[in-house]
Each structure stands twice: as C-alpha cells, then as structure tokens.
Amino acid sequence: MFTGQHVFCGAKAKIAVGNVLPLKSIPEGSAVCNIEHYQGDRGTFARTSGTSAVIVSHSDDDNKTKIKLPSGAKKTVTSDARAML
Fold first, then answer.
1. Do 45 and 69 meet the contact criterion of CB atoms below 8 Å apart?
2. pLDDT over 90, % of the chain
C-alpha cells in the first residue's frame, strides 16, 4: 500500500493489494490478512504485522472456505466472511 492509494471494500471490489473482499471472491492460493471467522466479526485471524494466511480451497456446497493460518493450522470459515488482500 502507499500514500494516496484508493482502498475499496465489497463484493465488486477488484482483486488488488489493500482491498477487502468476501473470501469466495478471492482466488485459491492468494495471501490474505485480517480474516473474519464469521461475517461481521471485524477480523480475527492473521492480524499482526507481517503475517498472512493462504486460501487453500472453496466449497460451494456448504459455503465454506479453508484457509492455512500463519501457524500452519488449517481452519474452515464461512465464504461470506471478508478478508484484506
């Protein structure tokens, strides 16, 4: 990110560093930070400086996304939750 950069939030935001999108809109293998466990909880995973999680897979059947946390643990969260690229 840089001074003067525009940051967008929402389902229609483009995939770019600093933007906030629903997990289902972010491609697998992308590094993300400040991930919500449930939609609207303001982010609970990968919040500290220099950390990021990786999106492992999406499941359309049950609306879940599997992420790999900085600790190496894998976690399943709702796909409607948001994360910052």
1. yes
2. 87
